[in-house]
C-alpha cells in the first residue's frame, strides 16, 4: 500500500509550497490568464498528477485511478445535479413561467435594484442552495437580476457573494452530514456548531450586496433591508440547525426571510428608488401574465421542494443504495491509519431526484415533449464546459487527497496551538476552491480539523465548523461552481473573468470569518464543547 510521506522534499517550507501548487496553478490560470474553467482544470489536473508523482512519489497507476474516482464523483454527485436543475430553469424559460415568476416578484416588492439584490440573490437564492446547491443559485438568480438591469458580470458577482452563508446547509445539509460522519461527532452537535458560526457570518453579505449595487449610497439609503434580510434568514435558519438538524435550515431560512422581506416592503420602501437604466420591467405596464401563470410558476418550486426533500432526506431509503464501489486506499503518516478516496454508485442520488422533479413539473404543467427536448438541449449547450470542469477539478482534488498533499499541508498545523484558529478556515477554503464542493472539503479535512483541535486543546466543534464555513467562502472562486453559475449568462465558459472579480471579496469575507473564529475561541469556547 502506498504510504503518504509528510515531508517529501525534506524542507517544510518547500513541502507546503508544493502542497499549494494545485490551487496556485488554478488561480493563476483562472484569475490571471482568464482561461475557461474546464481548460484550467484540465491543466491543473495534469500538473497535480505530475507533482504527486515526482515529489510525493505516488505510483502513477494509483494516481490515475484516484483521479478517475474523483472524475466520477464530479460527474455523478455534482454535474448530474446541476444539469437537471438547469433543465428545470430552461423549461420554465421556454414556457414563459420563469417570466411570470420574475414579474410577480417585482410587482409584489419594488423594482429598486438594491432591494431586489437582497430579496432574490440572498433570500430566494438560499432556497435554491438548500435544494440543489453547486452553483445553481447563481444560474437561476443571475438572469432575474439581468432582467432588472444588472449587467451580466455584476449579476453573477451579486449572486455569488449572496450565496456565501447558506452553503454549509445546502443540498439538504449534505456537507454537515459528511462532516459529522468523518469526524465521528454527533450530527446535531456539528449542525449546531456550524449554525453558530453561520449566524454571525450571515450578518455581513446583505451589506456587501448593497455596496456592490450602489456603493455607499446604497448602504445609506437601503440599510433597513440589509438588517431585515440578515436577521430574518438567521431567524428561520438558526433554530432549525441548532435543535432539529442540518437538513432543512436553508429552506426554512429562505422562506422565512423571503416572507418577512415581502411583508416589510409593504410598510417601507427606499426614499429614492434605484432603477437601473437597462431594466426591462416597467411597473406601469399592463399585466402580461395571468394568475394561473404565476401559480404554475410557483408550483414548479413547490414540486421541487417536496420531491427533493422526500427523496434525499434522512428518512429516504434511496440515498442508502449502492450498486458498486470504487476505492483507492493509502496509508496516512499523519493520521496513522488507512485512508482512501472512493466513489459509490447510487442511481438514486440527488441529481436523479431533480430529474424526477423535472418530469413531474412537465406533466403537471402539461409541457410538450418538444419543449422538454429543447430544454435538455439548451442545458447541454450551456453546461458542457461545466461537466468537463466537474470531471477535471474533482479528479484533481482526489489526487490532492490520495497522494498526501492535503496531509502534508496539515502536517505542522497542530504545532500552532491556539493560533490554529487563524488558519483553520483556510483548509476548508482550499478544499472547496479545488473541488467546488463544501461536502468534498469537509470529507477531505474534517478528520484533520477535529484531530488538530484535540491535540491543540481547542474546542472540538469549532475547527470543523470553521472548515465547513471556510469552504462556503471559496464558492465564488471555485471553478466547478463558477461553471454552473455562468451557464445562463453571456459569460459561459468565461469563468476566469468572474473568478477574478470575485477573488478580493472572497478573501475579504474569509478574513471576517477568521475574526469570528478568534472571537468565539477567546470569548465563548464552551459553545463548541461536546459534553
How would you characterize this protein structure?
The protein has 531 residues and is mainly alpha-helical. It has helices spanning 12-19, 21-32, 37-54, 60-95, 97-107, 113-131, 136-147, 152-162, 170-183, 187-201, 205-243, 249-264, 291-312, 350-364, 369-402, 405-410, 420-435, 438-456, 462-472, 479-485, 495-523; strands at 3-4, 324-332, 337-345. Helix 5 packs across helix 13 (291-312) and helix 11 packs across helix 12. The protein is globular, with a radius of gyration of 22 Å. The model has no long low-confidence stretch (mean pLDDT 90).
What secondary-structure arrangement, pairings included, does this model have?
Layout (H helix, E strand, L loop, with lengths): L2 E2 L7 H8 L1 H12 L4 H18 L5 H36 L1 H11 L5 H19 L4 H12 L4 H11 L7 H14 L3 H15 L3 H39 L5 H16 L26 H22 L11 E9 L4 E9 L4 H15 L4 H34 L2 H6 L9 H16 L2 H19 L5 H11 L6 H7 L9 H29 L8
Parallel strand pairs: 1-2
Antiparallel strand pairs: 2-3
Helix pairs in contact: 2-3, 2-21, 3-4, 3-15, 3-20, 4-14, 4-15, 5-13, 6-7, 6-8, 6-9, 6-11, 6-12, 7-8, 7-20, 8-11, 8-21, 9-10, 9-18, 10-11, 10-19, 11-12, 13-14, 15-20, 17-18, 17-19, 17-21, 18-19, 19-21
